[in-house]
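thread: overnight batch results

M.L. [08:02]
morning all. the overnight job finished for the chain we discussed friday. pasting input first so we're all looking at the same thing
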Amino acid sequence: MSHTNSTTGGGKSPLSLSLLAWSLLAAILVAAAYLVGAGLAQRWITPPPALSSADPTPILTPTPTSTTVNWLTPGEPADGTLGTASVDEWRFQGHAGQSVTIEMWLHPGSGSSVEAELTTYLVTTGGATLVEEGGSVFLPPYLSISSLPADDLYYVRVLPASGAPGRYSLLLTLSEPAQPGTPGAPQPQPRRTPTPSGPVVSITPGQFQWPTTRRRISGWTFHDPGNPGHIGLDIAAEMWDPIVAAAGGVVAFAEWGGGYGNLVIVEHPGGWRTYYAHFSKIVVKVGQEVMQGELLGGAGTTGYSTGPHLHFEIRYQGRPVDPQLYLP
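M.L. [08:03]
and the structure it wrote out:
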């Protein structure tokens, strides 16, 4: 009996085996190519280093957004404005042996807060600090040096210490340069630029009146030698004594003024302003027009005060002047 081999049973043909082998080989090649590519990518591309938990968090230090440089002229008030991250630089020509004073005043209501503070430096061209002083609206900086070290340019740098101090005014006073003389011969006394206690401008009679019925000066006077930062008169008063406008004008400030306590500022025509501090109560509002002699509030002892009194200032174009020169 003869037997015939079947090609349609459970066996596979050579063609089917060939296709299966080629498919398996292609899959192996694709997998190998992927693995090789991934390895090269790891070698060529370095991932950014991970921050460990021990790494400190970066701290961004505020950088001044602007620096303004201007010239100072002795005896002439200058004005500037400080934000929270600005620096003002004022320069002047000095000579060896000259004495220098730099007085400064801030304008309440122009900054972020009456509590804002600033720091003022007197610096040489080489960057050495000769004197440094901080201050605020109530106690402004007052720089003084008895003798400049050399003939050179000098810089007054004004920086915010807290908040935005706002508008300020400063005044440079220089003595005359020392004159060479014969050894042993008496030297002439230096002539000084007029200080802020001198008259600034003439006024008409009756332009200002006393803001209280009492006229006794109590405590500090204008630029008292014991407190050079004090820029007004302290007038004796009892609690709730009426405080009136020294001249007609418009109320520019009427609220808490930091060291001034409850503060009222009245703006008058011609660049004049009067300041009234330490009120127990204020009865006027910003923008209100007041006549000379009109009630502003009651005397008190708010702010930096050791007892009831009125702190009174007169300023002309931002510069404090001695009220006693303008009151009748």
